[in-house]
Amino acid sequence: MNLWLIDAFTDTPFAGNPAGVCLLDEEKPDAWMQSVAREMNQAETAFLLKRDDGFGLRWFTPTVEVDLCGHATLASAHFLWSAKKLKARESAVFHTRSGVLKARREKDWIFLDFPATPAEPCEPPPYLLAAFNALSAPVFRSRFDYMIVLEKAAAVRALKVDPRLLREIETRGVIITAPSDEPGVDFISRFFAPAAGVDEDPVTGSAHCALAPYWAGRLGRNALVGFQASPRGGVVRVEVQGDRVQLGGKAVTVVKGTLEV
Question: Is the CATH number 3.90.70.10 carried by domain 2-115+247-258?
Fold first, then answer.
C-alpha cells in the first residue's frame, strides 16, 4: 500500500506540518491503523479508502484517533492529485467523523471546506493559564480546544509551556493566538496537544476553524492570513463563509514509500 510523508501548509520541504498518508486496499482494524500511526510517529497519519462517492478518511495521532484534522486532510488531497487517483480539476470528497469534507485545487494552493468551530468566552479550567504563565489572558472554548488570546505576537513566540500541566486538562488541545506583527499576516498562533500525544503541533488546520471566526469578528474581515509560529512554521489562508471555513495551504511530498503488509 502507498504510504507517503507530506509536508502540509508549506511549499518548502521540512517545513509546515508533516503527515503520513496511507491509501488502504481494504478496510483495516482500528488497532492496526493506530499501530501504523505509532510507527510513523507523526502528529497525524491519514488513512484513505476508496468509495463510490469519494474516499473514507480517518486521522490518527501516535496515541489516539481524532475527529478533525486539517493538515492531514490537505496532505491527503495533495496525495490524491499527485498519485493521479483524482484528475487535475477534480475535487476531493472525504467522508469523515466530522461529516463530508471537500478539497479543491487552485494552481499550487489547496482549499479545504471545513465546519467552523467558533470559540466562546469561558472560565479557564485549573492549570490552564498556569501552564502558559498567562494569568490574566482571556480564555475561550471551541468544540475541540481551549483558546487563549494574548496581546502581543512576541509573547506567543516566546511562550514556554509546561506539558505536564496541559495533560491534566480535558480537551484535545490549546490554541494560543495574538495579532500579527508581520506585514501580510493578520494573526499568529501556536497549538499544544500533549493529551493527544503531540506536545506542540507545527501547523494545525482544524484550529483555524476556531481562529478564523474569532479574528474575522475582531478585524471585521472574512478573508485573513494566519501564521502558526512553531519552529517549523506554516501559513494558512482562511475565509469565513457562514458556518463553514475555507482553509488554504500548499503541500510538498518528501517521501514516497510502500507499506509492507
Answer: no
